[in-house]
Design goal:
Chain lengths: ~200, ~200, ~200
């Protein structure tokens, strides 16, 4: 089923993004695997926790874990001089992963009859949570909070799903495509949300 | 009941504190909401986790979430030049929140017949946990661990409640007031706990 | 039973390591206790979460908590000029703790019939998780991800236990000794895993 495929692509993309950042930070091979796995599964772990599903359910996704491990291995072995290009592809897959995981997280929460707030939070955390944990482990400020519009698209997916506008597969695919494209546009054209700076007192 | 009111004030105060720090760190509007919500509810999430209550119970506090969202919106829209004053009020509300949440956390743990250690930890984490997560997401060292006496007041509340000294509402109010005042005094007069510096080897 | 003793030594060692880092970072006495406790119990908390055991089970280990509190107190009161030596002993106990906790975590996961992946992750997180949380709270990059071979030994313990090679007490003791010695050798002779640096794009 196509949904599994999307989910697999998301897992792969996030695993790759974690592995690349670990290599940028000069982690050893163990750190590369750890950061790849955490990025791919961290968002789902936090979501399960917040919506009351056992975190240990993650272990039933054996195929996803194998996909992540294979992806990280390929990134680690990949020829050096092509990695700049990987980084560009990484952003593309990351957008797909954000979109697929946000929609999954929202559907998960809707099935449990959680209120709108919880559905939106589940979408945001499943889509962006892995990246937040990744950045904190890598000693970086979580970029997702500062740069081009990112988690808002996940929130939008959660909102649309929670108000029952989108339920059948066809509309889910359209939503998935729209969120992915909007994220890529945000990144390409540096769309930003308003912010207000205040001076520390 | 007054207890709900105190809890609401605590939620509002922590939400405001998170929003202010997010603006100091130049997060966009999404980051401001995220940090406000995390500061207001993070402590409770960690506490639930540690004392064996489902974290998803947080979603039943719909009114609290609405209060937090409204508070953050007001902070974001607030006129720039008054924000210095907000910061001062933020410390005041933060003290109230620390006190109210520490007492709540301790009572929660006592109801579950947990040992003294767990009650003290629940008080400390509910009172200060949101701020610790807030500082880590903002890329700051958790200030609560370094500056004027803070979490110790939460620990004291937990200890007094766990040894059964304080149970009826009247004494709880006195404890709440005392903890709030002690925290404000700590901040105003820069009370510090002893520390011992050792040189890294 | 000797297993309890090893576990106690691990708890003591991690509590000491957290307390020493807190003092290096100039935390106050409260911060010293907090970081000591978090280092000693954080790994187990994350493991319980991931393998579906209630985190609150930690509170049943009252003796361990008391041991940790006493250890931290002794470190805090210890004469200044001897602390350099403590640091050296800290590494020794840390190796014991890593080994004992990794084996415990793996056995825990095996009892729950979790797949190999989960057993290895449980071993790694129980052995190294407390130190990762410690470093993040102290505002340091998690050293375990960068320096001499560390968590890999925990992963190896998990792997050996999960494939049923090692189950009876005698082999567990041999494994415990081997992991401890390998970690000490890694540290002493600066064994490192391969790493690949890529330039940030």
């Amino acid at each position: 089923m196509a949904w599994e495929v999307l989910s697999a692509i998301g897992t792969i993309a996030f695993a790759i993004s974690g592995a690349i950042i670990a290599m940028e930070e000069e982690f050893d091979i163990f750190g590369v695997y750890l950061l790849g796995i955490v990025t791919a599964f961290g968002g789902g772990a936090v979501r399960n926790l917040l919506i009351g599903v056992p975190v240990s359910n993650l272990w039933e996704q054996e195929m996803m874990i194998q996909l992540a491990l294979v992806s990280i291995t390929l990134v680690f072995l990949f020829p050096h001089r092509l990695l700049g290009q990987w980084n560009r592809w990484g952003h593309f897959f990351d957008a797909i992963g954000l979109s697929a995981f946000a929609i999954q997280g929202a559907l998960h929460a809707v099935e449990l009859n959680l209120p709108v707030y919880a559905v939106v939070v589940a979408a945001v955390l499943t889509g962006s949570g892995g990246g937040i944990i990744r950045d904190m482990l890598a000693g970086r400020k979580p970029l997702v909070l500062k740069v081009e519009i990112y988690a808002v698209w996940a929130a939008m997916a959660g909102l649309l799903i929670s108000v029952d506008l989108i339920r059948n597969d066809f509309y889910l695919y359209i939503l998935f495509t729209a969120i992915t494209v909007l994220r890529i546009l945000s990144y390409t054209y540096k769309w930003r949300l308003p912010s207000r700076k205040i001076t520390s007192v």
